[in-house]
Design goal:
Elements (H helix, E strand, L loop, with lengths): L1 H29 L8 H21 L2 H6 L8 H24 L18 H23 L8 H7 L2 H23 L12 H19 L1
Length: about 210
């Protein structure tokens, strides 16, 4: 039974990644005007970021969902695969973003003189701190747990989880809020990935507030 649930977890991860990347291609290239040369890094990065935030938000919401009567991935191994996948996708997002971090691809982060904008600085700071907390969270549940009891208690606390989700939300908010309320500016007429990701985080916040 546990093997079947673990397989279901892997299939779910593959589905989330496929839908996320597919949506990025649909929005920016099929219905939008982003050239196909940007598929390997820029567009793939957007899909990966959506998949990463979805998996991470779900991973830290499994127990609260269970407390609310919704059973998902009860197998400990399935949860672990979910968390590791979210972390690996986050690392991929960070590396891909680093490769193309310039005003041509991330204009919202820069002023006209090429320096970081205030919105860009706040978004990056929230993203970096959130990324560090994700690594700490993963470290607590990887390998032998001896000596990690206090740290595990901290990272599983309601304050830590809500703080982590809040950082995710801030990273996304400062990155894209100026475009969220302007459907006329949406690529292909479809909602921005940053907005969808923010909704995912907002749902995660609600679940954790209610279920922890």
């Amino acid at each position: 039974m546990s093997v079947k649930k673990e397989k279901n977890g892997v299939n779910f991860i593959i589905l989330v990644v496929a839908i996320s990347i597919g949506y990025a291609i649909l929005r920016y290239q099929i219905k939008g005007d982003v050239p196909w040369k940007d598929l390997p890094v820029f567009i793939l990065n957007k899909g990966i970021s959506l998949a990463a935030i979805t998996l991470l938000s779900l991973c830290i919401s499994i127990r609260p969902l269970s407390n609310l009567g919704v059973q998902l991935f009860s197998s400990r191994q399935a949860k672990k695969v979910l968390g590791i996948s979210g972390l690996l996708l986050t690392i991929a997002h960070v590396l891909l973003s680093f490769l193309i971090f310039n005003p041509s691809y991330f204009s919202v982060f820069f002023e006209e003189d090429g320096t970081l904008s205030s919105k860009g600085s706040l978004s990056l700071l929230a993203g970096v701190v959130g990324f560090m907390l994700v690594i700490i969270y993963h470290h607590c549940f990887g390998g032998v747990r001896a000596g990690k009891e206090k740290l595990i208690k901290i990272v599983t606390s309601k304050k830590f989880i809500l703080g982590l989700l809040l950082l995710f939300g801030l990273h996304l908010f400062f990155m894209g809020y100026s475009n969220w309320m302007l459907p006329s500016n949406w690529q292909g007429g479809l909602p921005p990935i940053s907005l969808i990701s923010f909704v995912v985080v907002f749902l995660g916040l609600g679940i954790n507030i209610s279920g922890r």
